[in-house]
Design goal:
Layout (H helix, E strand, L loop, with lengths): L10 E5 L3 H8 L7 E6 L7 E5 L6 E6 L19 E5 L2 H12 L6 E5 L3 E7 L5 E7 L9 H15 L6 H15 L14
Parallel strand pairs: 1-4, 5-8
Antiparallel strand pairs: 2-3, 3-4, 6-7, 7-8
Helix pairs in contact: 3-4
Protein name: Catechol 2,3-dioxygenase
Organism: Thalassovita litoralis
InterPro entries: Extradiol_RC_dioxygenase, Glyas_Bleomycin-R_OHBP_Dase, Glyas_Fos-R_dOase_dom, VOC_core
Length: 193
Amino acid sequence: MRKIQSQGVHHITLMGADRQTSIDFWEGVLGMPFVFEQPNLDNPKDSHLYFDPGDGRLITIFTNEDRQADRRRTSTDTGAVHHIAFNVSKASFTQAADRLKARGIVVHGPKDRGFMDSLYFKDPLGLLIELACYRFEPPVGCTYADVMIRAHKIRVERGDYNIQEIHLADAIEELVETRQHSLSSDRSAKNPF
């Protein structure tokens, strides 16, 4: 038996209400360019809208003019989607709550997640949306996942409850030391003062 190796999220498709509600939210609130539209090839009564969440991948929405927006919280039953999180820069994160509240949107947070900060709010159809802002940048040639797995191992080795900035800083230092070469024979910490 062999695995099928994924290489990233291709797209996420959500059930929307009418077309304009989707455009107004995904592009008009979250700034995702509306890049493509065609009929839903499995249900021609629906339209299929495509938005770029900022990394060139896609968020797609099935819309139908006969469906109305329902703001009640979407199901959190087993097997349901709890929330979708989008990465934002620190500059955008610090402005996000005020910009959402200016639209009358209820915002929860910011919440300290140790390795990131989060804000939560619902879309017009009751889906919980998270805006997440990492507290670190991975070293050149590394991914966020590289830093997270190393920080997790450091946290577990130290018996700490959750990942904190000290674990991230130590993970980044270890990744740089193991992946980037140096002419120095001793790369340990020094005090030149």
